[in-house]
Design a protein that fits this description.
binds fe (ii) ion; 76% helix; 6 helices; 165 residues; mainly alpha
Length: 165
């Protein structure tokens, strides 16, 4: 981004880049959690779960791309070392060690809840200060809210199906 583009940001740009890099680490961890979740998941309605995890993984990767582009626009450097992801991230990587569909979906819900909190916070911090980042964060937050809903709805369907058996 040019000097003027950066000049309209009415907050500490260095601090903003740091916050965006933290969110970038979250996105990569979420991407991998869902990507590998789709590979290992087992149990009832696993096909539906695979579809959700695959779609969500693609969304998280797209979010990572949006955030990295904004970091570059702001004159920063996106995290270059995957080894920094875990210590930089806001949200924990939830390892799908237990591949049972309910366990993996519950981890997904937990991850999305953390993401919703992170992006709500970023919205507040950028409101009236950086309209471009604000707009990007709002788009991402809309996806994360949908993701939580998707995982929760699938969990409810599975629980319902098991009760009726
Ligand atoms: Fe995301
Ligand atoms: Fe998500």
């Amino acid at each position: 981004m040019g000097t003027k583009g950066r000049g309209i940001v009415r907050m500490d740009v260095g601090k903003l880049i740091e916050l965006l890099n933290k969110a970038l680490a979250d996105e990569w961890l979420a991407y991998y959690q869902y990507w590998v979740g789709a590979k290992v998941v087992k149990g009832p309605m696993k096909e539906a779960a695979i579809t959700e995890f695959t779609e969500h993984a693609a969304d998280e990767l797209r979010h990572a791309d949006m955030i990295a582009n904004r970091v570059v626009q702001l004159g920063g450097t996106p995290l270059t070392d995957p080894r920094s992801w875990e210590k930089t991230a806001n949200c924990a990587y939830l390892n799908p060690e237990d591949p049972y569909v309910k366990a993996v979906l519950e981890q997904g819900v937990e991850g999305e809840r953390c993401a919703i909190e992170v992006y709500s916070g970023l919205l507040e911090k950028t409101q009236d200060k950086d309209p471009l980042t604000y707009n990007m964060v709002l788009q991402i937050l809309q996806d994360e809210v949908e993701h939580e809903e998707d995982f929760q709805a699938l969990l409810e369907d599975i629980e319902d199906m098991m009760k009726r058996r």
